[in-house]
Amino acid sequence: MSESTTTLYDLIGSDAGVHALVERFYQVMDEDTAFARIRHLHPADLAQSKEKLYLFLSGWMGGPPLYVEKYGHPMLRRRHMPFPIGSEERDQWMVCMTRALQDSPLTPDLRERLIAAFFNTADFMRNREEPGVPEPGFAPVTGTPASSGGRDPSRLDPQETP
Fold it and tell me: What is 12-155's CATH number?
């Protein structure tokens, strides 16, 4: 990587920006009962969940590969298989992340880019069969999220709960 290459990690504010995003994400999830469904998929103490998301996002955004260094390849879908994740869980996760991103000092373009990228990843975590809902799939980061069941969480009003 050249000195002039700017990563998402740099644009979000490096270490401090990733930490702040993770803290706000879990704060939204923990404090708003509208997200009880995904909150109950997490342990009562969120410390380890926060650490793992921080470590993962650091590398995912082009910063230090902290998760890989500590735990090996993320194998996200495989690690999430024990938890029932459908479009409702995906959408709740996305609203929490969208709110966290909106509370971050990011440009609108960067925010939209991150929302689209997060949606692709969140959609890929779905592991429950849902009649009438397409299988998980990826869309280009700059395009419309795939397999959204007719809803695009990146366009949800962050005050709206799916």
Answer: 1.10.490.10
